[in-house]
Amino acid sequence: MDALPDMTGKGLQSAQDQAQAAGFYNLHSHDALGRGRMQALDQNWKVCGQTPAEGQHPADVKIDFASVKLEEDCPGTDQGASRPETANTMPDFTGKSGKVARQALDASTSLRVTDASPAGRMVLMESNWQVCTQEPTAGTKLDGQPVTLTAVKFDETC
């Protein structure tokens, strides 16, 4: 058993380095805002929470850091702790990122995400866009039909 420190508030790279120095190497991280973003450049992210919490743990335990970008505030509750299961009933994606919606749907689903604003912008980074409307509606049985979402950037209102 090794002592895992509390990494909350530290930069993600620093938290990973300190965890390794304490003997932990099974390190993971996720987007605490639930937008499905990758932590590609760890120095640009900070730790909001961790699983497991600080304390004595076996060295091979999986450490998962809930993270947000440096300029963002940590959410009150971790929105991205687990990936959604593939849906056979249409979930309610309102307010979720386009990327989270894509991950929740079967890989064979035809999915179109378009700009809900009158600007007609291309939706390139789906993790930066929040869903405003969806077709089919939440609760509809999914049986191979195409899915259409409209979305705006997260700093915009639907």
What would you note in describing this structure?
The chain has 158 residues and is mainly beta. The chain has two helices and eight strands, in the order E-H-E-E-E-E-H-E-E-E. It has helices spanning 12-21, 98-104, and strands at 2-4, 27-31, 45-51, 55-57, 63-69, 111-115, 129-135, 147-153. The radius of gyration is 18 Å and the shape is elongated. The relative contact order is 0.17.
Give a count of the beta strands, DSSP E runs of length 2 or more.
8
Number of helices: 2
| Biggest beta sheet summary | 3 strands, mixed
3D shape: elongated
Q: What's the Cα radius of gyration?
A: 18 Å
* Sequence of secondary-structure elements: EHEEEEHEEE
The end-to-end span amounts to: 49 Å
Strand order of the largest sheet: 2-5-3
Q: Please identify the structural class as seen in this structure.
A: mainly beta
Strand content: 25-35%
**Unreliable runs:** none
Mean pLDDT, to the nearest integer, reads 92
Helix content: 10-25%
Summarize the structure.
The chain contains two helices and eight strands, in the order βαββββαβββ.
Task: Considering the chains and any ligands shown, give keywords for the structure.
mainly beta; 3-stranded mixed sheet; 28% strand; elongated; 2 helices; 158 residues
Explain the layout of strands and helices.
Layout lengths: L1 E3 L7 H10 L5 E5 L13 E7 L3 E3 L5 E7 L28 H7 L6 E5 L13 E7 L11 E7 L5
Parallel strand pairs: 2-5, 6-8
Antiparallel strand pairs: 1-4, 3-5, 7-8
